[in-house]
Amino acid sequence: MHEIPPGWDITREGPSYPLAADIAFSDVQPEQYLGLFITGGRAPEYLRYDQHLMAITRHFFAHNKPVASVCHGVEIIAAADVIRGRRVATVAKCALDVTFSGGAFVNEGCVRDGNLVSGRTWHDNHLFMREFILMLAAAESAS
Fold first, then answer.
1. 12 DSSP β-pair partners
2. 48-83, pLDDT tens digit by residue?
3. Catalytic entry in 63, 72, 123, 126
4. Which domains does the chain have, with CATH numbers?
5. Residue 36: what are its φ and ψ, rounded to 5°?
6. 13, 33, 77, 129: which sits with the fewest CB atoms below 10 Å from its CB?
């Protein structure tokens, strides 16, 4: 977990809540899933090198399925090369990832561009998650 303590201008990292995975990226069959949520934190910095995750991410964009990204999650969708020409919100220090990948950084709590909804940080959960749930409901109704 990383937060900016009062009076600091950089983040301080500390332990958070570990979650055990019950499936490997290589075993995911993305056609069995309605939507994709890409969280932030430090993991995307490392996970973006996994080619199975890149294939999963590209599947959701190629099939116009709902995708939500928050904070450093943008590092995954940027690495998957799926944000060219799109408006994307993320934490300000990841704006460069968006622009280098052909997207347009937007400093707002909820940005929807097609099948992608994004937020800056977990502080925006109440904004972009509402939209993501609506997108999932519409996708379920259409299937």
1. 3
2. 999 999 999 999 999 999 999 999 999 999 999 999
3. 72
4. 35-142 (3.40.50.880)
5. -135, 125
6. 13
